[in-house]
Amino acid sequence: MADITHWADVIADEVLAKGKKHLVATGITPSGHIHIGNMREVVTADVAFRALEDKDADVEFIYIADTYDPLRKVYPFLDESYAPHVGKPLSEIPCPCGNHKNYSEHFLEPFLAALEHLGIHPKVYRADELYKEGVYVEAIKQALVKKDEIAAILQKKSGKTPVDTWNPFNPICNDCGKVNTTIVTGFDLDAETVDYECSCGSKGTVSMKGGGKLTWRVDWPARWKALGVTVEPFGKDHASRGGSYDTGISIAKEIFDYEAPHPIVYEWIMLGQKGAMSSSTGVVVSIADMLKVVPPEVLRYLIIRTKPEKHIRFDPALPLLTLVDEFERLHSSDKATDYDKRMIELSHAAGLCHTDIPFKHMTTIYQVAAGDFDKIMNIVKRAGYDTSSEKCIRELVDNVGNWLEMYAPDNAKFSVQEELPVSTAQLNDLQRAFLSSFSAILDKSGELNGEDYHNLVYSAKEAGTELNIMIAESLNVDAAALEVNPKELFKAIYVSVLGQPSGPKAGWFLSSLEKDFLAMRFKEAAEYKP
RNA sequence: GGGCUCGUAGCUCAGUCAGGCAGAGCGUCUGGCUUUUAACCAGACGGCCUAGGGUUCAAAUCCCUACGAGCCCGCCA
């Protein structure tokens, strides 16, 4: 298929058909750890933003943290001391670790840091500040005045009859501090105040500036109007008929006289085989954890390669490596199509450095070197990779080390066995003859580099070499009749050292180990009879 | 009880909007690299496009129905 347009560019075209000036908005409630499911929203918004920029639209990009939402419950990661705070706005609750200004900042700070790494730079707003600054005052007034109209819209669209004390505005109780336990008893448009009664027994008056918030379904369209939002991605939870986007369209138009933003509905990210990512089920991979393991561009690519309305199946184990691989190939491929190039372009996160060492390959180097950076650098140099930027290599090494520790499946790991592996019992006579001869040669030779080792192993099959003659003698056959398959020899090496039939490139691998250790180990293996 | 999205090679997915020969990567297999088994290169294998019906000269693509997967609304309006 020729001329495949990336979804971001399709969206940009659709949006541009409506006008030239745009505001892309995204918002997340920082009620808990912000995970890579949430990341989809932000990356989706950023990609739409970039696509619009590329088409010379007059476009801005904002992120609104819903810091004024109430704490819904005591989440599993919170202790019971949070029970009295349930119902209070997140921005008014103490920080779990004590190092941040409040509860929402605790979760927001690492997330904003992650955004930087991902090359996403929206203008950041906090809902509590917007309310306190009075940005919502006009909307609150209209909502209070048109309360019944709003109720009618909600009833018609979502099919639910509101209770008679319902009000689009929820005052924050002056005494108990909760936002979901109050009812509105009156308001004064000139003084910009609202009267309330709270289930805690308190009665009082609050300001429209920071004294309460609009209920979510009204808050959202009010925000569109107040800030001028024209494009916004949101999860499918808001997207169904009767859902908050659906009611938002009507409320925006009929109450606030505003056209709802262009929707970008996205699906959830499924974690491995475990189902949807969700804080409540504990199926979560935080963005911070992912950034320890892969470059930010790969995370962007994960989101970008899939259309928003499709699930993304994400598995941080081996499939993640495949993803990294795919990205690296695409990045350096000269066969990339325009579509591929566009994806790479959109994946780009500024200020990053690249090495030409494949991630997958580094997992081997890392384990051969047992994580020792100097050894890793030696191996990398010997292999002829670009070592001009040690910093880049170190970043890669850190990622790989974390991946091995956090997500690598056992079959991707190997380790040099302390004791002779029992599987050496399976070695055949040729393999034993090879190992004992190999060991003897190692004993009397000087230091060998990777290539030496490599050549030495292959010399076994060439008539007239020392190793070839020794093997023939050991097997008591004529050297001319000796047939040697190097594959078998390599297998013998891996089994003796790692206890498994395959392993990393033999030359480098052996040269990274102590020669004396190898000589002894191969001798033991050759003689081992259970 | 309603609604939304998805279903294409062993795996992950493009292609569906705008109908025109069934695609890519990974994996597997084979071969090459005068031979670094997790490097690299080339090739091959691999499909009832979930199923059934309809529209059409022509359907993975549009329409209807069923099945499967995931999710949402109804509770916090």
Question: What does this molecule look like?
Answer:
- The protein has 21 helices and 12 strands.
- By secondary structure, it is mainly α.
- The chain has 4 domains: 1-133 and 267-351, Rossmann fold (3-Layer(aba) Sandwich); 169-214; 359-412; 422-527, Arc Repressor Mutant, subunit A.
- The strands form 5 sheets. The protein has a 3-stranded parallel β-sheet with strand order 1-2-3.
- α7 crosses α8.
- The longest helix is centred in the N-terminal third of the chain and has 19 residues, at 36-54.
- The mean pLDDT is 86.
Q: Low-confidence parts lasting 5 or more residues at pLDDT below 50? A: none
The largest sheet, given as strand count, sense and whether it forms a barrel, is: 3 strands, parallel
Strand order of the largest sheet: 1-2-3
Task: Report helical residue fraction.
Answer: 40-55%
How many domains in all?
4
Motif ('HIGH' region): 30-38
Keywords: Aminoacyl-tRNA synthetase, ATP-binding, Cytoplasm, Ligase, Nucleotide-binding, Protein biosynthesis
Motif ('KMSKS' region): 276-280
Protein name: Lysine--tRNA ligase
